[in-house]
Write a structure and sequence with these properties.
Helix content is 75%, strand content 0%. It has 69 residues and is mostly helical.
């Protein structure tokens, strides 16, 4: 599907927006990236990737694959 899972994308966008407003570490990250000349869209894209990787690692650790697979 070219559009991807839009519901999941919307949920990630909401998480990123809330973190950009309230989470101190994320706010510091955004400030550093803005100082580098990045746009808000670029910053949000990298934050979405970061959050997605973190969620994936959490899910993978909770459900390890069998050793024979």
């Amino acid at each position: 599907n070219r559009g991807g899972d839009w519901r999941l994308n919307r949920a990630l966008t909401t998480v990123v927006i809330v973190r950009m407003r309230t989470h101190p570490e994320t706010r510091a990250y955004v400030a550093r990236r803005r100082a580098e000349g990045r746009t808000t869209k670029e910053i949000m894209r990298s934050l979405k990737r970061y959050i997605t990787r973190r969620i994936y690692r959490t899910l993978a650790a909770a459900h390890p694959t069998p050793s024979g697979a």
